[in-house]
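Lab notebook page, bench 4
Experiment: in silico fold of construct C2
Operator: M.H.
Input chain length: 412 residues
Purpose: comparison with the prior construct
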Amino acid sequence: MALPLPENLHWPRWFGWSVALAVLVQLALFALATGPGLAGTADSGYYVHAATTLRTAGRLLHPDGSAYRYWPPLYPVLVSLGGSLAVLRLLHGAAMVVSLVAWSRLGRWLLPGSLALVFPWLLAFSTPWLVVSKFVWGEAVFLALFAGYAAALFRWLRQGQRQWWWLATALGFLLPLQRTAGFFLLAGTALSLLLARRSLGWKRLLPVAGHTWLALLGGVVWHVYALLVAAPSVYRLNRGWPQFFSSAADYGFVVSRWLLPVRAAWRPELSLLWAPVLAGLLALLWPRAPQPEAVGAGHSGSELVGPHRFLRVLWIAVLAFVLLLLISTTFTRSAAGLYDAERYASVLFGPVVLLALQGMGRWFESKPGNRSWSSWLVVGIVSMWLVYSAGRTISNARALRKLAPMAWTAAQ
């Protein structure tokens, strides 16, 4: 039987207006940052060249004439369909909007009303989203695919309707075809659903298994081709365990900057601090079960698909993504370093902020005598967080605008 979506009686009626205004602000920042055009890196040249050869020769090729194989094929196919960087810029902007709307909808279902209202604005002032959307990289579309996947998966788990299963499976199928790290998100999601098999119910185990198998299928086929047919193996020891802990510190620093006003100089100055900070932040973000009275007052308490349980699905997906990225930087040719960490972790911004807001929402579950004090504390913290995020994003938008735009012919 389909369960209704968790209706929170405290949602502001103007939630839709809040999302719409946040989208307008997000697009204004995007227009400011990308007005001169999209920027490029070495990866961008490969994407655009592959897109060009697909249009002219019907094949994805590297600049040296060999078969395109170092990255999944979906992004250059999308670039090819657009045919110009101007159209690609529109695609990036649309992907940003889809990401904001999809995560905002999840926030509306999973957060207390006042925090759900703030969530779209924190997404609109997302520096990592803005940065990856400025460059000819696959991350912008990857963000939208994962946001849509998470929203569709929640709807299916909550309501059991077939169309949401198909949508989640289709978006999951595209994730590893857009970025190899899509495997990591799917692995974390599958693990979380396996751990919750008792609450899930035996009747849903087969659909979950089918969803996972189909979602992984396309990416597996592509990587078998890329690794065994078109290229030598990329799996090799990189720089050993020092690289593992160095990358962990990079990701700890990146996530910290999303939540706190951390200076860039603190990464090298406090290099031994950031790996433990990553572990501590992940531990703090773990979604605890709400108090019984909080469940009755706000959300309907279901089994697997209650708000805190689905937040645990997201938390395990985040954990798996980070751990597998750390392993990939240690045992493969995957790029490492602070700037690559900022790029790769951008897909986690939505779930991390959602989990952080849910943690702050626990203050609302305090004893009645302390509720007024704790509520004002949350308001103060969230307000400072919002001001910090806005200032940082506006500053970065102005800096990104100064980057030289990439020319389509530069990759030919």
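Observations: The radius of gyration is 21 Å. DSSP finds 19 helices and no strands in the chain.
Next step: discuss at group meeting.
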